[in-house]
Structure formats: C-alpha cells, structure tokens
Write the structure tokens for this entry.
Amino acid sequence: NVFVHSCTSSGYGGSGGGIYVANSDAALVDAVIVSNCTAQCEDSCGTALAMYGGTVRNSLFVCQRPPSVANYVTPMGTVAVRGGTLANCTVARNTSSLCAGIYATGGRVVNCLVSENESTNENPTYGVYACDALLLNSTFVNCLGEVEKINDTCVTGDPLFTDAAAGNYRIRVPSPARNAGTGAYGLSATDLDGNRRLYGRAV
C-alpha cells in the first residue's frame, strides 16, 4: 500500500491536495491511503483527490482537514470526480465547509462508502454529495451513504466500520454495504487486505 499524509497544494487552481489524476485513460491509482491533506487555493477541488480521468480504486480517504490559511476558498469535495472511475473506495471522517464527501461532476463512482464526514454547510446532503442533479443516476453506482439514498442502485445506513476511531475501516458482517456492490465494471480481484473482493456476483 502507498500512504499519502499531511500534504498541501496551494496556488490558483491547485486541486488535489493529496493526489491529482490527469485526464488520461491509462492512469491507475491503486491501494492508496490518503489522510490529513488539504488544498488551500482558489478555484480548486478535491482536498484529498482530484481526478479527471483514469481509475482510482481500493483506496481510503480519511481525516482530511480544511485550509489553515485565512481567506482561502475551501476546495469542493474531499474527493472531486470530474472524469474516470472511482471504485471500491472509502471516504470517511473528513471535515469541510463545502461537501465533505464526494463532489462529482462527471465520471463514475462505483462501490464506494461515504460516511462520518462532517460539513458545516446547513444542508447535510450537500455536505456529503454535491453533484449535478442530472448526473445523480448515471454517476453513482452501488454506493453507500449515511445521509440519504442517491438512486435505486445505492443504499444508505451506517457502514459499521470495525473501529474507525482507531483507523480500522473494515466493515463488519452486518454492514448494509456487504454484498451490495457490483462486479460489472472490471474491478480489481482483491481488496486492501489481499482478500477476494468478488464472491459470486456481489462485492
């Protein structure tokens, strides 16, 4: 696994405080853990990840922090998806005033858990997902969120992490996310622990 910790991007348009994935179908980010990152700049998106293409999978985006510099604009989304595929990822326990979870304006978000993110925005749905309403049905596939169900492929509820406070984001057996994913998008064969991801047709 690769760990990205305590990184900051700055300057105008400095998206992707932890990882920036350019508009390339060939780009692949696999098995990365990103924590305690920020982007403090104007016109930015993605405190932990900004992706415009490629595939990001089997990764964990947790405990990101808002900008520490006064008068800087908070980036849109802990994870910003403008293109490509975000798959089998967990976005949890992040803090932001603007969309503490996933902000998607394109691409595909598949089999992802979005939970325990804290936003100071008064609308809690906006605090977890900020997406063009026309893209809600086509962008998010078989995801779990705590606030409300996005579309008919997604579920809602507590993912039942083993011990998120201690950094253990494995889900327990009763989790509503268990066997609720899809294997239809050419996803990887194993998870972060090296265990089989697909049993039968469910993830």
